[in-house]
Design goal:
The chain contains 14 helices and 16 strands. The protein has about 325 residues and is of the alpha/beta class. It folds into 2 domains: about 60 residues, no CATH class; about 240 residues, Alpha-Beta Barrel (TIM Barrel), CATH 3.20.20. It has an 8-stranded mixed beta barrel, surrounded by 4 helices. The protein has a two-stranded antiparallel ribbon with strand order 1-2. Strands 3-4 form a two-stranded parallel sheet. A hairpin with a 5-residue loop joins strand 10 and strand 11. Helix 5 runs parallel beside helix 7. The longest helix has 22 residues. The chain is elongated, with a radius of gyration of 25 Å. The structure holds ligand C2E and magnesium ion (MG) (2 copies). The site of one magnesium ion has 4 residues, from loops.
């Protein structure tokens, strides 16, 4: 293998002037008969090894191993699943309530996508969201998601949060659609963007988010939106943001990641961390949501800390649209 990559490391001389061309290669290798005893199998498996090598970067050469094949098969399965979901409108939304911590009254819902196949099997985002977010289908999907959530807000007159991907957050036309939504639903709409996505390029994030606080009025003039949508930083604590960034970003809500809430009852240090986040957020004028509350003990501690909102399986699981009306008593 070293010999092979050594050959391609040397520049190739071309033309009369002996111009030096540097060639970068990737290769996938299969071994006969261990990896297959016919050309078709060996070729397919070499392709799987090659696509792995490409992911590792220029110059990488990989031998086939069975894990690569499993990954390739699962990728194709996901591709087919998402493909049919887009063609046949198989995406649906579940809604998980979040509650005011003090009296546990419903404060709003988070829209969480699911894929329901033709046999009625429900897939959660873990099965397809990474693929979807990196595919050409992201744009139609997120436009459908926004439309669905706006309709739900109008139907139930409740606050709803929509998760959006880092890519859509940077897409001007999609953000414009979100801005236009201020007219119809205003502050009932919250968009959730992960901390990781928000802190990737803090300067750009600041200008994108500030733009969302403005509305283009119907006659083209720009002004501060009277009912601006709310912006939540999702999975807070997992994105390595410096706390310093928080003071500069025009966000409204911090969603404290489930990993912190899970540990809150484990010890003094864990509790101190969540206490510090809640207090800092309050000082900065931000509301806090505790994600993934699963026990009475966690809820009790969050009440003591005056965390504004709580969300988790202890209080309510994500539910299909039909159940929301029942839940709201409508
Ligand atoms: P997220 O936005 O942080 O959503 C919270 C996830 O935690 C949801 O998983 C929810 O079902 C789960 N959860 C809520 N309470 C509890 C609890 O008490 N215990 C545990 N163990 N889990 C709890 P879900 O629905 O599988 O969504 C996973 C992630 O997929 C979301 O994380 C979000 O990042 C992404 N996602 C979901 N819907 C959408 C969408 O419409 N668009 C985009 N771009 N991403 C989405
Ligand atoms: Mg979320
Ligand atoms: Mg979250």
């Amino acid at each position: 293998m070293d010999k092979l990559s050594g050959i391609f490391k040397k520049p190739i001389k071309a033309g009369e002037k002996n111009i030096q061309i540097q060639v970068g290669i990737n290769a996938g290798i299969t071994l006969f008969p261990d990896d297959g005893d016919d050309f078709g199998t060996l070729y397919e498996r070499a392709s799987a090894a090659l696509s792995n090598a490409k992911k590792e970067g220029k110059g990488d050469i990989e031998f086939f191993n069975p894990v690569m094949e499993e990954k390739a098969v699962s990728f194709v399965r996901t591709e087919n699943l998402v493909d049919s979901a887009i063609k046949d409108n198989l995406f649906i939304f579940y809604y998980q309530p979040y509650f005011n911590t003090g009296d546990l009254s419903t404060a709003g819902f988070e829209a969480l996508v699911r894929l329901k196949d033709k046999e009625g099997k429900i897939y959660s985002p873990a099965a397809f969201i990474d693929y979807l977010e990196n595919s050409v289908y992201l744009k139609p999907f997120e436009e459908f998601a926004l439309e669905t959530v706006l309709k739900s807000i109008e139907k139930w007159h409740v606050n709803i949060s929509l998760n959006i991907s880092a890519k859509s957050f940077k897409r001007h036309d999609f953000m414009q659609k979100i801005l236009n939504a201020c007219y119809s639903v205003g502050s009932r709409l919250t968009i959730e963007i992960t901390e990781r996505a928000l802190v990737e390029d803090i300067g750009k994030t600041r200008s994108l988010l500030s733009g969302l606080k403005f509305c283009k009025k119907q006659h083209g003039e720009e002004g501060i939106c009277e009912n601006p949508l709310k912006i939540a930083m999702d999975d807070f604590g997992t994105g390595y943001s410096s706390l310093f960034c928080l003071k500069d970003l025009p966000i409204n809500i911090l969603k404290i990641d489930i990993s912190f809430i899970r540990d809150i009852a484990k010890g003094h240090k864990e509790l101190a961390l969540v206490k510090a986040i809640v207090e800092l957020a309050r000082e900065l004028g931000l509301k806090t949501v505790a994600e993934g509350v699963e026990t009475e003990e966690q809820l009790g501690l969050l009440k003591k800390l005056n965390c504004d909102f709580v969300q988790g399986f202890l209080l309510a699981r994500p539910m299909p649209e039909e159940e929301v009306s029942k839940f709201l008593g409508k």
